[in-house]
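Handout, section B. The chain below has 849 residues.
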Amino acid sequence: MTSTIELPSPSLVLLVGTTGSGKSTFARKHFLPTEVVSSDAARGLIADDENDQTATKAAFEVVQFLAGKRLEQPRLTVIDATNVKRDARKPLLELARRHDLFAVAIVLDLPEEECQRRNRERPDRDFGPHVIRNQASHLKRSIKGLQREGFQRVWVLRGADEIDGVTIERRPLWTDRRAEHGPFDVIGDVHGCHAELTELLSKLDYRVAEDGLQAVPPAGRRAVFVGDLVDRGPASPGVLRLVINMVAEGHAIAVPGNHDDKLVRKLSGRNVQLRHGIAETLEQLDREPPEFKDEVREFLRGLVSHVVLDDGKLVVAHAGLKESYHGRSSGRVRSFALYGDTTGETDELGLPVRLPWADDYRGQAAVVYGHTPVGDPVWVNNTLNIDTGCVFGGRLTALRWPERELVTVPAHERYTEPPRPLLDPRAAAAGDDRPGSVLDLRDVTGKRLLHTRLLPSINIGEEQSAAALEVMSRFAIDPRWLVYLPPTMAPPATSDRPDVLEHPDEVFAELRRAGVERVVCEEKHMGSRAIAVVCRDAEVAERRFGIATGETGALYTRTGRAFLGTRAETEAALTHIRGAAERSGVFDDLQTDWLVLDAELMPWSAKAMSLVRTQYASVGAAGTAGLAAAADVLAAATARAVDVGELAAHVARRQEHVARYVESYDRYVAPADGVDDLRFAPFHVLAAEGAAFVDRDHGWHLELADRLVAADPEWIVRTERRIVALEDEAATADAVAWWESLTAAGGEGMVVKPWTFVQEGRKGIVQPGIKCRGPEYLRIIYGPEYRDATQIDRLRKRNLGRKRGLAGREFALGVEALERFVAQEPLYRVHECVFAVLALESEALDPRL
C-alpha cells in the first residue's frame, strides 16, 4: 500500500510511536541525518549510553535546544523520540509556536506485539515488556486529540506495510513563493477605486478589458496587490472582480489587508463593527448576484498573510513584516501582516497606536507594504510604504520590481475624508530623528563579520569597532554623506638596490606574477586624499542623501572628517567641482545629478600644517641648530690644532642630511589661506545615480577627470600618467625613467594600478594600487639620515604583509559601500562598510609604510 505525506517545509515534525515502532529507521529513510534530532543520540552525548534513562531529562533539554536553533534558521526539523505523552509533546509544540512554524505529527501505529518482538531482538534494550505496554496505552489515548493539541497536520500510519509504503513530498509554506521571479508590479491600497486601478494598470502597459474586469500584463510581468482592495471607495465589487480574475489567470498575486479580513469575517457570519467603509462595501455587494458574495468570501479566505518572492529578495505584506516573520506562518505573523506592530492602544481618533517597525528593520529582503497612507513613498531601511491614499484624494501607486521605479496615477476625486492628514515622509526627513540619519550602535559596534562581493568575509574585532566609533562620534561629518572611504595604499616589495627602498621594477614584477598585462602609472600628488560628494543643488542633496540643511555636498578626508574648516569654504570648493561637471557635460553624459569623486587636494600643508610644524619642522629645526653648534665647536677645535677631521666630516654629512630633509618637506608647504589657494586633482569618478563605476577601466576614469580639468584648469589639476604594457620592456623602462624624473624633481612618486579597476589575479583580487615613492620623499617619512647604509639596510626588514592585506580588505569594503549606496540599500548597510574601513585603520601598523 502506497500513500503520500505532503509535508510543509520548513516545519517541526514529531515522529510519534512506541519503542520498536521503527521511528529511527523511518527518519533515516526519509530525512537527512542533519534534519533529525534524536532523544537517544542526546542521551548518548550526555551519558555515553543511548539507553541510560537517568539522562532523559537532560537529553530532552538538548533536543529542545538543538531543535530551536534549527527552527530559527528556519529549517525542517524532525524529533525522533517516542512523543507518546502529551506532556512530552507540549514543549515541542510551544517551540514551533515560538518560531511561528507549523508542528506536524507522523504517528507510527504498529501493533504492540510487533514492537515487543522487535525489542526482544535488540540486545541493547533490556527493559521489561511493561514499558512498551505503557507507551502503547498513552499512544492510543493520544491519537484522536493530536490535532486539538495544536498540530497543523497529523498522519497516522498503521502497520508495517503502510509505514514502508509511504512517500514524503515536501511542500513550501504557502507564504514561500521564492521560486517566482516576476518581474512584478506591486500595487498599493486600492480601497474600491476601480477607475484609478484600471488607469494605473494601463499606465503599466497592462491590456485592460473594456469592462475593466480583466487585465493582461506585459510578457513576464505580474501584479502583486498589497491588500485593502475594498471599503471607502465607490466600486469595491469592480475591484474584487478584476483582482479575482487576474489571480485566477495567473496574472496577479494578492495578500489580504485588514479591510479585506474584516469583510471575509462579516461574509462568514461573524459580528463586526460596520465602520471605516465596510457598510458601503456591503451595500455595494448587495447589488451583486448572491453567488458573487460566496466567490468573494472564498477568495479572500484563501489569501495568505504575506508572500516571499524573487529568491527571498522581495516580501509583500499589507502592513509590513519584520524579518523574523518572513516566510513563517502563525496567528501573530498574520496579525502583524494585517495590522502592523501595534501597542494595543488607540489614539485620540480611535485609531491603533502603531510602532515604527521599519526604523529597526535590518533584513536583506525589501519589504513593500501599505496600510498607513503617506504623502510620498520613501525607502526606509529597505522597506517601502506605497499606500499613497488614493481613496482620500491622493494617488494610487505601484512599485516596479526589480527596477524599483514608482508609477502613480492621481485620484479622480476625494471619496472620503482621511482620519488624519497623510504622513509626509519628506518633511520628517528634515528632522534629526529620521531613520538612517542617526547611527545605530547595533550596526557598527561589537565583533562583526562582513560579507562583500570582492571578499567573502572580513572580520572586525570589538576593539577595532570601538576605535572607529570614537573617530566617527567625535570628528566625522554628517554620516549621510559618508558613502565611501578610500583604502590605504599598499607599498611595494622592498628593493634590493643599494640606495633606494622602493623602485618601479619591483611593482611591475609583482603585477606580472599576478597575471596583470597592462597598468597605468599615475603621478602621486603630494596632497591629502579627499572624497568629494557633489550634488547639482540642495534639492538633490535632500532627495538622494536626506540632507535638508541647504548643503550641496561634502568634501572629506579618508577618515570621514570635514576637509575644510567652514561650511562656506566647502561650498566654495564644491562650486568649482560642480561648475566643471556642468560645463564639461559629465553630469549629463552620466545621466546623474550627483557624483562621488576620489582625488588629492593640495597643497599638503592645507591639511597637514600642524603635522609639519609639530613633527617635521621641529626635527629640522633641532637638527639644524644642534648640528650647527656642533660644527662651530669642531671648527674651534680645529683652529687649536686638535685633530677632529673624521668627526667634523661626520657632522657635515649629518648637516647635509638635515638640510635635504628640510628641503624635502618644505617643497610641499605652500600658503593655503582660502579655497582659491587649493588645487583639486581627481582621478576616480567613483559613483553616480544608478552606477558605481568599478567596472570601468582607469582610462575611462582619467578621461572624465581630464574633462573636469579642461573645464576649470586654474583650480582642477591634471593627474599625469603613463600607460604600460608589462611585457613591453621599452614601455616599462620609459615608466621607470619617468618615475626617476618625477622624484628627482622633488615629486613624491607614482601609483601603479592594474588597468581594470577591479583586477582578478591568479590568487584572487590584485592590489588595486601600489605606491612607489621616491627616495627624497621617503626621507620625510623615515628621517633625515635614512639613506645612510646602516639605516637603509635596517629598513629593508620592514614587514609589509599586514599593510598589504589591510589595503585589500579596505578596497573590498569601499567598493561594497559604493555598490550598496547606488543600489539604494539602507544607509546602515553602507555605514557598516564605511565604519569597517575606519575600524581596520586602528590596526597597529607602522604608519610609515
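Note. The CA atoms of residues 337 and 547 lie 32 Å apart. Compare this with the example in section A.
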